[in-house]
Amino acid sequence: RDSHQLPFAGTADWNSFTSALAEINYSGPLMLETAGFIPGNATASIRRKAEELTAFAARELADMINASRNR
Q: For residue 5, which of 23, 41, 50, 58 sits 20 to 30 Å off, Cα-Cα?
């Protein structure tokens, strides 16, 4: 089921995912569809914080890919 949550939520194996991307030397964009993470009735400040957390998770994924490349 695609629930549009943040990376590291749910049951996805993010270590395997990032290792596989590193293995094929993927350097393109990653699309994070997190609409399910941000409630529709969120205030502007909550929405901003949720977007900051999404950006942090994206940087963490990029760091994991880079770390896998350096192994």
A: 23
Mean pLDDT, residues 9-24? 91
- Cα distances from 12 to residues 9, 22, 42, 43, 46, in angstroms, run 8, 17, 26, 29, 25
The predicted-structure confidence for 37-63, as pLDDT tens digits, reads as follows 777 888 999 989 988 999 999 999 999
- Retrieve residue 67's tokens: 């770390």
Nearest CA among 28, 48, 38 for reference residue 6: 38
Has this prediction a pTM greater than 0.90? Answer: no
Q: What is the DSSP letter of 31?
A: -
Closest CA to 63 of 12, 9, 10, 7: 7
Instruction: Confirm if 61 and 14 have CB atoms less than 8 A apart.
Output: yes
